[in-house]
Amino acid sequence: MRDEDLVVMGFVRGAFGIKGWVKIHADTEYADSLFDYPTWWLGKNGSWKPYAFENGAVQPKALAAKLEGVDERDTAEALRGMQIAVPRSELPEAGEGEYYWNDLIGLAVVNQQGEALGTVETLLETGANDVLVVKGEHGQRLIPFVDRYVLEVLLAEGRILVDWGLDY
User: Fold this and answer.
1) Per the count of CB atoms within 10 A, which of 6, 45, 91, 146 is most buried?
2) What is the DSSP secondary-structure string of the chain?
């Protein structure tokens, strides 16, 4: 599976218990929605391996999952730090005005004056709203992902138009 065919949805935090379960950090809107996908691709640095999802549980501070072929703690612990991805073709269509975070990362951010602010490095979830973490020539900026500041997301053009000054 190629990197561009996959969407990273979280990562393995380590082993959970002694029977091969793994502790998961999910970067999804609803933590347990990762359980909706029958096959998870685990990997790092472009090297991916499929694992069939067998069972999952929501824990107070994380998710726990049982993957086929991972039957003991040492095997589960060896997966620590692996990214979890699913094929893009299995994701539901994003609604109007909605975007997968994965699609926003790497986009150029430009303000109304045509000044380049940098590129989206990642996004943060704050509870009130998501925040674009933009890294550029003049350092890092945190831009709230709300209509007031994010005017247009132009995926096809690879850029985001914002109402944000260079001096903010």
Assistant:
1) 6
2) --GGGEEEEEEEEEEETTTTEEEEEE-SSSGGGGGG-SEEEEEETTEEEEEEEEEEEE-SSSEEEEETT--SHHHHHTTTT-EEEEEGGGSPPPPTT---HHHHTT-EEEETTS-EEEEEEEEEE-SS-EEEEEEETTEEEEEE-STTTEEEEEGGGTEEEE---TT-
